[in-house]
Write a structure and sequence with these properties.
The protein is α/β, with parallel strands linked by helices and about 270 residues long. It has 10 helices and 12 strands. The chain has a 6-stranded mixed beta sheet, with helices on both faces. A 6-stranded parallel beta sheet has the order 9-8-7-10-11-12, sandwiched between helices. Helix 4 packs across helix 5 and helix 4 packs across helix 9. Bound molecules: NADP nicotinamide-adenine-dinucleotide phosphate. The site of NADP nicotinamide-adenine-dinucleotide phosphate has 27 residues, from helix 4, helix 5 and helix 9. It catalyses: shikimate + NADP(+) = 3-dehydroshikimate + NADPH + H(+).
């Protein structure tokens, strides 16, 4: 019988996950399909338990449910530490995982940038920054967190056990850094003129990873190019966090390039 997978969120109509995973299932000729479900906050528990009861193959969880989903799953150690779940598997009860940090690491790796023993300045202290901070610190990166609201950077740095600094010190911070990550919504459509850093504080030798993927070429990536730094866009993280979820659910090697093409087509 056909296996069903899905993503739960609200709103959900712009999700690229159905296109990405259905392309992977087609490529591997698996009798599976993936749908987007708009689920209200108060029904999240029912939706997760219902998916298990109906024999779903797995779920992704997206905004605004990632934190709440922790309560209704048995989270693995990383998801518990992050405090958020983006992938649910039903192979062994209801397990909660978080693949966002690994997705970010893979995006850098495929651009030839390793994270262990690197100095990373992570701008942002929301959900995505949290996942990246825990995963990167666990992998041996030296992480410094800066955020528009400094108190949130301080709290996240304390949780992770890493440093924090004021955004106003970004220029000095970057002088000794290998990687700058934008994990904020700055630059995201429709605020495409917004950026966390201008060309003059970036330098050759710095990898500038913008996890925003809409638009594909953000203002920050353009500034990085002008400064001779290495620009890395957010699509790769989206694809690799999805690829890792695919691997968890199916045990199969995900067709990463097919998934990437589906996402790029979805973004037009
Ligand atoms: N590529 C991927 O796979 C992937 C995965 C997840 C998320 N994302 C993208 O990452 C971004 C953040 O997502 P999230 O889930 O972490 O959101 P979130 O939890 O709402 O956090 C938003 C973060 O952005 C900061 N921020 C918002 N506008 C800003 C601005 N104009 N200048 C500076 N900082 C600003 C916020 O700072 P304050 O604390 O001061 O409000 C906060 O740190 C979104 O664009 C999302 O689409 C990409």
């Amino acid at each position: 019988m056909k296996k069903v997978f899905g993503v739960l969120g609200d709103p959900i109509e712009h999700s690229l996950s159905p296109a990405m995973h259905n392309a992977a299932f087609r490529e591997l000729e698996m009798d599976c399909e993936y749908h987007a479900f708009r689920v209200r906050h108060k029904y999240l528990k029912n939706a997760i338990l219902g998916a298990q009861a109906m024999g779903f193959g797995g779920l992704n969880i997206t905004v605004p449910h990632k934190e709440k989903a922790l309560e209704f799953t048995n989270p693995d150690t990383l998801a518990r530490r992050i405090g958020a779940v983006n992938t649910v598997s039903f192979n062994d009860g209801i397990r909660g995982h978080n693949t966002d940090g690994l997705g970010a690491e893979m995006a850098l790796l495929e651009a030839g940038v390793g994270i262990n023993a690197s100095n990373v300045v992570l701008v942002g202290a929301g959900g995505a920054a949290r996942a990246i901070a825990f995963h990167f610190a666990e992998k041996g990166a030296g992480v410094t967190i800066a955020n528009r609201t400094p108190e949130k950077a301080e709290v996240l740095a304390e949780d992770v056990g890493c440093s924090h600094a004021g955004l106003e010190n970004l220029k000095e911070l970057l002088q000794d850094s290998d990687i700058l990550i934008n994990a904020t919504s700055a630059g995201m459509h429709p605020h495409i003129d917004s950026t966390i850093a201008s060309r003059d504080i970036l330098h050759p030798g710095l990898a500038v990873f913008d996890i925003v993927y809409n638009p594909l070429q953000t203002k920050l990536l353009h500034q990085a190019e002008l400064a001779g730094a290495k620009p890395i866009g957010g699509v790769a993280m989206l694809v690799h966090q999805g690829a890792e979820a695919f691997r968890i659910w199916t045990g199969q090697k995900p067709p990463v390039e097919v998934m990437r093409n589906a996402v790029l087509e979805g973004l037009g």
